[in-house]
Design goal:
By secondary structure, the protein is of the alpha/beta class. It contains 14 helices and 13 strands. Helix 2 links the parallel strand 2 and strand 3.
């Protein structure tokens, strides 16, 4: 089978790795060609794709948008038509989705959730948005929904990355869709000795982009309560693509409590070491449409304590692989419980690791995509 995969960038980071890892696993039995823009391309990702036998084509990216941004859209449409592909898998933004539509080929689009209220992310948690920003936020939310409706109109089949995302799409767009979990195994987690010695002091870890909806301020507040009773524990925050005002806000919060360290823009090798040496993972992410860092932590044997948002109940089994807290006060209680019982934390981490390795692999995801593709092409 000839499969074309369209995506924004070739990167192994965060949600961008979905197209890369799926391509690599589908390439074991199919001819796979990745199409993306040429910006933010990572050499390690290029090497990985070549090793896995995945062909790829990069198109020039022009910013801001002007006439030359149209040329890659048309060029991709021509390549898709001439390549005689059986199916297109879309993980892209709107321009390349237009290319898929122009090609006339069947398209499966992967829905990763609606990132609403993005306009208000410029406000810090303690700030009150103005009335006109509330109005603009509502407008931007409508634009986000309208954009996604275009994806739904073009795609022959939609697939969600979690049951939470599936329910959100079905409620918003009144469109039934499939659901396939993405994998968590990657160059970050593969070939890793997870039995590396832990830090001597009990260490909490939280990883993601440094933006308000990720809830790092809530994590710091929970840790501050714990630190008053257990001064030897520590919290490490690893953040990427920081919003500068939010980063400074977090540093002010962290400065009120010792043993809180905030790192930004770390490489995979350093990130891996922090996963290995920590004891418990924390999250307060409001838009956890899948929870990739949660499952990465699980892969390294860390249980998770998190606020009950979005898809967290799908990635954490309460009382077996971690704890799901209804409130920040509950989160503090669970944190204290695992500090007092490190053997329990280790046991929960082992169960989390076993579940991640069993249920959330790219090989499993690729087989489910293959089944979805075959069902679509038979019709």
């Amino acid at each position: 089978m000839k499969i074309a995969i369209i995506t924004e960038i070739l990167s192994g980071r965060s949600g961008s790795r979905v197209a890369v890892e799926l391509a690599a696993n589908l390439a074991e039995h199919h001819h796979v060609h990745l199409f993306a823009y040429d910006h933010h391309t990572e050499p390690i990702t290029i090497q990985y794709l070549k090793k896995q036998g995945v062909n790829f084509t990069l198109f020039p990216y022009h910013r801001p948008f002007h006439f030359y941004r149209i040329r890659p859209i048309l060029a991709l449409a021509r390549r898709l038509r001439s390549g005689r592909y059986d199916i297109i898998l879309s993980f892209s933004f709107l321009p390349f989705m237009v290319s898929a539509w122009l090609s006339g080929l069947p398209v499966i689009h992967t829905f990763q959730g609606l990132q609403l209220d993005a306009w208000l992310e410029k406000y810090l948690p303690e700030q009150k948005p103005s009335w006109y920003d509330h109005w603009l936020n509502k407008l931007f939310n409508k634009l986000i929904i309208w954009r996604e409706q275009i994806f739904f109109a073009i795609a022959d089949r939609e697939v969600a990355i979690s049951r939470f995302a599936q329910k959100q799409a079905e409620k918003t767009f009144h469109c039934p869709m499939s659901q396939i979990y993405i994998g968590v195994d990657s160059h970050l987690t593969r070939q890793s000795n997870v039995k590396t010695a832990k830090n001597h002091s009990f260490t909490f870890l939280s990883v993601s982009r440094l933006t308000p909806y990720k809830g790092f301020h809530s994590v710091i507040k929970a840790f501050s309560h714990i630190h008053q009773r257990y001064p030897n524990v520590s919290l490490i925050i690893l953040g990427s693509a920081p919003k500068n005002n939010y980063l400074q806000y977090l540093r002010r919060l962290a400065g009120k409590t010792s043993n809180i360290v905030i790192h930004t823009e770390l490489n995979d090798k350093t990130l891996k070491e922090f996963y290995k040496k920590s004891h418990v993972y924390l999250t307060a992410d409001r838009y956890l449409y899948f929870g990739l860092p949660v499952l990465e932590a699980a892969w390294f044997g860390l249980p998770t304590i998190g606020l009950k948002h979005a898809a967290l109940p799908e990635t954490v089994v309460h009382g077996k692989t971690g704890y799901i807290a209804d409130t920040l006060a509950d989160m503090v209680i669970y944190m204290e419980k695992l500090i007092k019982q490190p053997n329990l934390a280790a046991n929960l981490g082992q169960q989390a690791q076993k579940r991640a390795i069993t249920l959330f692999t790219w090989k499993r995801s690729a087989k489910q995509y293959e089944k979805l593709i075959n069902n679509l092409l038979k019709k």
